[in-house]
Amino acid sequence: MARLIRAVLLLLALALPAAAQQDAFDAAVSGLAGGFNQQAEAVERLGALGDPRAVPLLRALADGRLLKRPDGGLVPPGEAAPPGAEPVRVNNRVRVALRGALGRLQLVSPDPAERLAAAEAVFRSRDAANAPLLEAALARESLPRIRSQMELSLAASRLVAADKGAKRAAIAALGAAGSTDARALLLEARAANPALAAEIQTAVAAIDRRLSLRRMAETLFQGLSLGSVLLLAALGLAVTFGVMGVINMAHGEMVMLGAYTTFFVQEALRGVPWLLPWSLPLSVPAAFLVAALVGAAIERGLIRHLYGRPLETLLMTFGVGMILQQAVRTLFGAQNREVLSPPWMQGTLTLPGGVSVTQNRLWIIVFGVAVLLAVLAAIRLTRFGLEMRAVVQNRRIAATMGIRTGRVDALTFAFGSGVAGMAGVALSQIDNVSPNLGTGYIIDSFMVVVFGGVGSLAGTLVGAMTLGVVNKVLEPWAGAVLAKVAVLVALMLFIQRRPRGLFALRGRAAEG
Amino acid sequence: MSATLASPAPPRAAAARNVLRWVLIGAVLLLALLPVLNRLPLDSALHVSDFVVSVTGKWITYAVLALAIDLAWGYAGILSLGHGAFFALGGYAIGMHLMRLIGPRGVYGHPTLPDFMVFLGYRELPWYWWGFDHFPFALLMALAVPGVLAAVVGFLAFRSRITGVYFSIITQALTYALMLAFFRNDMGFGGNNGFTDFKELLGMPLNTPNARAMLFYASLASLLGAYWLCTRVTRSKLGRVLVAVRDAESRVRFLGYDTTRIKLFVFVLSAVLAGLAGALYVPQVGIINPGEFSPGNSIEAVVWVAVGGRGTLVGAVLGAFSVNALKTWLTSVAPDLWLFALGGLFVAVTLFLPRGLIGLLRRREP
Amino acid sequence: MTAPVLYLDGVSVVFDGFRALNSLSLIVEPGELRAVIGPNGAGKTTMMDVITGKTRPIAGEVRFRDHDLTRLDEAAIATLGIGRKFQKPTVFDALTVFENLELALKAPRGPVACLRWALSGEAARRIEAVLDETGLASRSQDRAAILSHGQRQWLEIGMLLMQDPELLLVDEPVAGMTDQETEHTAALLRRIAGGRSVVVVEHDLEFVRALGRRVTVLHEGSVLSEGSIDHVQNDPRVVEVYLGR
Hints:
The complex is a heterotrimer. By secondary structure, chain A is mainly alpha-helical. Helices cover 71% and strands 2% of the residues of chain A. In chain A, the strands form 2 sheets. Chain A has a 3-stranded antiparallel β-sheet, with no helix packed on it. The radius of gyration of chain A is 32 Å and the shape is elongated. Chain A starts with a helix and ends with a helix. By secondary structure, chain B is mainly α. Chain B is built from 13 helices and 4 strands. In chain B, strand 2 (200-201) and strand 3 (204-205) form a beta hairpin. In chain B, helix 2 runs antiparallel to helix 9 (259-285), helix 2 (50-75) crosses helix 11 and helix 11 (313-333) runs antiparallel to helix 12 (335-352). Chain C is of the alpha/beta class. Classes of the chains: A mainly alpha, B mainly alpha, C alpha/beta. Chains in contact: A-B, A-C, B-C. Chain A: One of its GO terms (cellular component) is plasma membrane. Chain A: Residues 1-20 form the signal peptide. Chain A: One of its GO terms (molecular function) is transmembrane transporter activity.
């Protein structure tokens, strides 16, 4: 029903232009009901007229939905079929004509997506006859993204035109555009235009340079994005392991709890549709709290009995991790839970230079940096951070100055766990939320902390980013798994030279 | 032998040790009887089911693995969270031999290539499969490959003084990386599915009572051999050096001992024992796949030792048997509870029972 | 002139910008007993660390007879014949007194050699002798964990005797000891010194006086003064450092 109204409105709106056009249009439309040759001509004529009213007709014809009355008149698309009406049949020649005509007509469609698709289709058709149409469409077009595609398509059409000057301009334009499509087009044109081979070669080389730069930029972005995932996963560990020296093998489970919290916040907000898109930001404090509370309970209940016995702590926390994992599995089931991305995190963003980045990865980088800054601020600027640093440096003296070291231990551990929980919010966007979510990250996180240098947040940042980028750079050559293995081996060798990591503490402070 | 001058223990402890010795001999004899009792008629009161024999055989190989871990952790303080990797490598070596023995009896009937290779379009056997049609070579590899890997990893780690939890984390990453690698089809080790459908070993068709009994006795003999070897090490001066390294490594270095070499020696020996355990395990369970490399397996084996009592060889064996008995029982009655129980064991043993079950029996000095 | 046993020249060590040793030079002759004193942070322990291979200097020469110690690790240096007694006595708690001494006994130290090691009558006699010398004979079969503080110090000195080193480095041997224990320790050290070179680091000036030998005063990582105890005690620079703090 709505579609019918829209079609009628469109017809009315478009009925205004000049009467001559109107006659030519009506004449062409009537041809659609004729024989195949007549049909093909009519279709081509409609395409050349550039009247958007033809679009529904041609589309109906292409889909076999266009009906013919017994008297030979056409039923306008959308109207109820009168008795005895039958579909207008087409042959292959008509179909080819239809495709071309629709493509041209869509260039002036009111729907921007359709115009873009049409411009792309014209680009692929490589037909010199399209040039005037594109010029006309360009004159009306205002959206920059579509304009640039149309300009590209125009260059493509001119490349096959007879005019040499136009060809040269087209080659230059294609070279500047720098897409793989433009490159293929130029290579094709080189065979047809030996005279212009040198110019085409220059343009292709320019494209190649840009493409390889773009690939590098994209690899770098992917590396940084993986790096910030590692950073998020490792930051909490940098606090508990780096600052307190506690090996928390249940760290991955803290991340997992954060991810589940995100899921439950989302479910709770389903009843409040206007808040739903903001469930992710709302989950951050919730995940922090949940993980921090569990962390505090573990520290007070279990870990504090094992201070000074790192291997036992390692084993014990591994057991705690198993229990947490199995508890979540029993309570909430083993299946993956889906956390939806809010609209503002979906899609890809094309940066200048054609580098495309996915929005959610971009947000994870932003989030990773934000969490790092927050952790830094908490340690450097707050009273709690001061007490924490005091206890780390000299527990006994801190105690004699009235700092309740037990409370600081619990808070520090809760803080590290809470940061892990916040990491879970981010990971819910790129990984399955399942009970064993954390296990995949724990080893990587430890690698980051060891590589960066235990006890150094700057080291954690550099370590995470380096491991992320190196992984992504190696991946195309070695595959994801071997890249991981290679990184591990490289790390072993690196530790040979710098056993205490990149940002090592040296001297007496490091001996303890 | 050596060190008779040392430690004439107080009489009560000596008596306890005597009792323990007789209990152990009794336990070994009882174990040795199992395959015999399996042959008794079904209606006999003393009949032991196939299941019991095969499960016990499996536990015996676990006990060898536990001894290997205990030698490194309990005595030298080297906590490896990657011993499952050595175990699995030993298993894969024997698995390769078993795959070669299938010959043309595979689904595709190829005379030399195992089924998965035919399926993946291999034309010929990869070079690293050469020689695995000979049992002695496969057995040698089952011991040598873990040994060499341990030597390389140990050398790199000990030389740069990576100790304690750092070493644990590195070995965990090692087994994790190997697991990922073995999951890949193009490694030539059967990918996801690993090896299975074995037919025979040393001319014996597998899955017959005879083969089960032979493998059982081979495992039992290996356990006794490994126990003897570990006793020999721990009672020697080397054993005392290991304890010294565990408690104060840098002091040992100032006494002139090259602790890198000492630790490397015991770590490689331990890895070889783990490889032996894996080699005995695979023919008994009839399958090996990359899951054996999972970090969880290694750390579970560490808990056997912790539960039994690290730093005592009897404890390691006792732990392997008791935890696995609990696992077999619990996974059949209440499968969901097993992981809770295992996690609980980790917590309980570290918090309340640092010297394990043996610590309960022997209350000596602190 | 005989060649010096220990020769340090221009040795510097830097920790994160802090100069723990600043162009330190020190020569110890064969058979000499040398006391090294200095306030906290003067670099006494760092000097020991450099000699025993625990810390690498960024500049300078460290020689033991003909050997360049900056290229060797702790174990190799110990095997050459340099023994060290730590400030905090470190003995192996899980082992008996006898076993502690047995580990220190000069013998092949490789893993296989240790595995095949059997206690010979000669070795047992040497251990018994040291047990007597340190007064620990009655505690031979006790675990080191249950010894008193003084006994642990003596056990550690006993272990050094078993090592039979040419050069002995002793770090604060009498810290936390009773007067009686201090006396016993001084006597032990003097007896050990016969034939060997010994470097003793100590805070306790009375103990240094009791030793009655050449004294080196360290300050801020280099030598401030050297000579007899009376000489250094009257050196105005030493007085300023000790009193003017």
